[in-house]
Amino acid sequence: MLGNEKAFIYDLGHILKCAREDKDLSQKKVMELTGINNKTLSGYENNVSEPDFNTLVTLFKLYDISLDELLYASSAENRGIFFMFSSLPKEQRDFLAVQIKALYDKYCK
Question: What's the pLDDT score for residue 27?
Answer without folding.
Answer: 95
